[in-house]
Every structure is written in C-alpha cells, then in structure tokens.
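Read as amino acids, tokens; as here:

___
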Amino acid sequence: MSLSWGILAPGGIAHAFTSDLRTAGLDVAAVGSRDADRAARFAHQYGIPRSYGTYEDLVADPGVDIVYIASPHSHHHEHAMLALGAGKHVLIEKALTLDAGEAAAIRDLAAARGLLAMEAMWTRYLPHMVRIRELIAQGALGDVHAVIADHTQRLSDDPAHRLNALELGGGALLDLGIYPVSFAWDILGPMTDIRATGRLGQTGADTEVAIAATHAGGAVSSLVCSSRAAGPNIAHVLGSAASLAIDRVWYVASSFRLIAADQTVLEEYRSRIDGRGMQYQALHAERLIQEGRTDSDLLPIDESVAIMAALDDIRAQVGVSYPKER
C-alpha cells in the first residue's frame, strides 16, 4: 500500500524532495505553508491536490500519512511535534533539530505514539553509499582506520540570510557539517572524543569548522565544513588493505573507486539514478511503515539524537550558542 505525503514548508529543499517523489511515482497529497498563496503555487507546480495556509490544517488532513518537515532547523522540533501529535509519521530534514534535547523529545513522542520519526539524511540511502557499506562489511578494506571528508561551499555572507541567522539555527555546521559528521559516524561508529575549532562570522554563526574525532574502536576522522569557500567536496575511507575514494560531490549520487594499497583499482562504481536521489530515503521510510516498523536500521533515531549531541559539543567548542540557549 502506497503512503500519501504531506509537505510542510515549501522552500527550496521541499522543491527538490517533491520533484524526486514524483520521479519515484510516490503520492503527494497535500502541502502546507504559513502563506496560503505560496502553498497553492507549490501545489499547482507539482500537481498536488490540496494546499493549506496553516501547518495545523496540513497535519489534520486525514489523507496524509507522513509529513516531510522542510522548515528551518529552528522550527523542526515544533513542527515535528505538531505532526506527531496529529498521528502522522515524520521525515525531518537534517539537521534533525537545533540540539539533542529537542531531538530526544521528538524521539520520545514518536515512540509513545507508535510512529516513525526519521532524519532526512538522504546521503545514507543513495546507491553508492549502500555499496560502500557492503564493501566494508565484506572486509574489502581490511581494518578501517580513518575517514576524511569535507563539505565546503561559497554561500551567502548576507547577515540576513537564513544561513547566518542564529535564531534560525544558521551556521556552516548544521547546514553543511552535518553531512561529514553523519558519514563518519555511519562508517566508524559513535564519536568518543571530539576536538573542534572554527571561525565565526559577524552574526556569531560559524562559517568554518574543523573537526578531529576518535570513534568507537579507535578509528579517527578529519572533517571540515565551510560556508565561505568552495573546496573539493570529496571523501576518503582508509583501510589496512584498501581505501575508498569518493568523487566530487561525495554526498550526492557519486562515483567511487576501491583502491588497493599498491594503488591498483579493484572496483569502480558509477551512480546512475533518476533525479537528485532524495527519493531513496522516502522509499525507505515507506517500506518501514508498511512493515509495521517505527525506526530506521540505516539511521536509527537514537543515532540521530547522539549525532545532535556531538554537534552540541562541537558548537560549544567553537563558541556558538543559539538565542534559546542564552
């Protein structure tokens, strides 16, 4: 049985997600915005039958099974709790929330209501990442020792831009750094020791963050994010027998090479997908719900909460706090 999606907050990321839902043939039943005209335009663009001028009306729609939360980080907690309270499953854009406390509250309400709450870390569900996990599980890399990754872009330095607004959870870490942090966590397990440094912009939001972490089992990661300079956006996984080199841009549908210690290329993988690839997380969420499951095996909600706690630690070391924390 196919599920029906509701889109909460029709901004840029919601356009990409909804387009990929349509590519995959999934049902989008409704969209909600605080601006009724904006919701109506979005609905018209994607052939969505119902649009609403409030989020309350969206989550009350009996034809909606699961709500995609696409509002800024600062509102994820509020909007996820609203949807869960209305009995809807939720797929919540990353970063899951502003901090670990908000993330834990979402987890706990979802568990109490028997609903799925899942972070939309879409990279984890892409085909090349599935193959990478297979190779590691098969021992193709030997013992995995390190992950190196960056997510670096030249984005707006306008103080009024969402990315630079602390009241909206702005900063490079939650927008960009979440990708390499979650990737390293996925490959190496939980971070057990974190050292971070960074630079702040004029609003107090972080513009660059560098992270050195030790993971369970002793492996290490070296991660960088920046919203002021575009870098290579590649990633490497280093093992005792071989390494993985993931091409630009590593966190979207990408290619990689499995390279032996003597530099022989053992496998070359090239992604061939329709659309951007955001449909894979939606298909995973639908499968879980159809199977009567309320947690993801690829990104359990407890792991998302733990990652938020790591991001809290990194922010504290860099010197970033949000208005609600003061």
